[in-house]
Amino acid sequence: MEFLLLIYYTEAEWAKLAPADHAALYQEYGQLREELTGKGKFLGGSQLRPTTTATSVRVRDGKRVVTDGPFAETKEQLGGFFLVNASDQDEAIAIAARIPSARNGTIEVRQLAVRGQAKQA
Amino acid sequence: MDFEKFHREESGRILSTLIRLLGDFDLAEEMLQEAYAIALQKWPTEGTPANPRAWLISTARHKAIDRMRRNQRFERKAEEIAKTSEIAARPESEREEEMFADDRLRLIFTCCHPSLPMEARVALTLRTVCGITTEEISRAFLVPLATMAQRLVRAKGKIREAGIPYRVPLNGELQDRLDGVLLVVYLIFNEGYLASSGDALIRRELCAEAIRLGRVLCSLLPNQAEAQALLGLMLLHDSRRDARVSADGELILLEEQDRSLWHREQIQEGTGLVESALRRGATGVYALQASIAALHANAKTAQETDWPQIAGLYDVLLRTHPSPVIEVNRAVAVAMARSLEEGLALLDELEKREELKEFHLLPAARADLLRRLGRASEAAEAYRRALTLATNDIERRFLQRRLVEIESQRDAQL
Amino acid sequence: MQFLLLIYSSEAEVAKISQAEMAAMHGEYFKFTEEIQKSGNYIGGNPLKPITTATTVRVRDAKRVVTDGPFAETKEQLGGYYLIEASDLDQAIAVAARIPGARFGSIEVRPIRPIGQAAQA
User: Fold this and answer.
1) Neighbouring chains of B at 3+ CB pairs within 8 Å?
2) CATH of domain B1-84
3) Fold for domain C2-111?
4) How close B263 comes to chain C (CA, Å)?
5) Which residues of C touch B161 (CB under 8 A)?
6) What is the pLDDT of residue B197?
7) How far apart are CA B261 and CA B254, in angstroms?
């Protein structure tokens, strides 16, 4: 089964970290990705630029409505995602718990709607 | 040459081109500053170059390439920039004018991109397109300097990181995006025209900049009738600048203004623009508002105002762009065109609407109609109600003055 | 540049539409996906199961805290995403505006942080 793990953390806190802390976190992320890739469980994932770079797009009555900012203002912000292959929900949760940002942020685990359709993302 | 004047008039254009060449707002600004510093040293002794603009751009570009070559991370970028063609240091040619115009338009669309917060669009346009200092902008908007500086930094950061392109939108998108640009220009104008506090000189400057931007848009996009209508609207409003505030800073209503103080040549130009926009089929919010402004501006006396036509235009505006201000203005126009009672009845209907409960212009308009009808006590009550809702100082002083007048009138009636 | 396009729509509203309408919309999504594959914008993308299947994972004091439901309760819910390649934000917005869900929901456009670039969060 494929799962999308949405990684939320407080951007302001992230920005406050020292460069050494960033480097350490990136290394930890890198190791987890590598390990999961080795087991065929990592299908894709990226870090997003902060929500200050977000844009929202809607189409109403055939007209494009573009606004600045993310879809919703939240205390923690969507900062990245992993697309993973797991045998079941429990394994997906176990992987989510190993994502470094789970320690000070939140990981939302979402199942893909169509099985076997997940491509690289 | 008058260096100050040159700096003021040319900075926006030169910066537009540099931003395109260097692909970075901050770098372009910094390098332009350096180029100016060199010019200040060299020009007085060596003489002003034949084409000062091209000289500054070329100097800033070389400075940028030098700086990037020194930094390994930017080496590739430096070579890319070095490959772009040099601007010939010959006198201004038609092609060069065209290039400046295109760059200017690109910059306007980038600064007014809908994925930037509105306040950032306004600030960034004033800073980079108009060349107004951050300090002046912060004073105009009554925002601390550090806040305004931060706003600009964030906006430039978003342009860079979110991938906002530096180009004029393609045909299919141009109309939508132009609406956004016109809105920014109109907001800048209104900030200068309607603001109640802050530095009067800077407010006047904002109106002038908005009109200048309007002119740039009209000359760069000559087929856009709504841009013409907006320029006409701004010129018509601005033509009354010397008549709408008294020597002691009090607001003077249109009806009581000394019309000899209105700037006739501006009214003529504005009216011409509106007529031309209407002939080309403009029916948008600026065209309608400008038509109303033209009717007011061309009435020789307040009594000669063509209220029936104004009321008709407000009918159309209300259908296409409904807003509380339009609702109230339409009722007032009906009162003046047909009868005070009919207008008052419309305002009474509006008072029943929940969303208009806190809208100060509504009791203020009612108070005025009641005053005209000689219903002094009711008028006084409405003025007091308006005073509890109005926050703008200049409007509050006006309402207070009217209240005192009406109370003395009422006492005389007793 | 890469962009993540997050598709938000009201699950309650989507649940109300008829089967025929749903089939038509699936057809539209299929056609849209094909189009952006042809144009070279498509990198990946997947629909998600409704938020009733969502789980939220946090790790606090080295302990795993698992709760049911999504990270945040919102009027519209994340229902899927596309990962695309676009020359700039305007192209990304143009692609986002063609997603069928843009007509009744919201698309959040988020630039991806390229790997190896210093954190600018």
Assistant:
1) A, C
2) 1.10.1740
3) Alpha-Beta Plaits (3.30.70)
4) 42
5) 111, 120
6) 60
7) 12
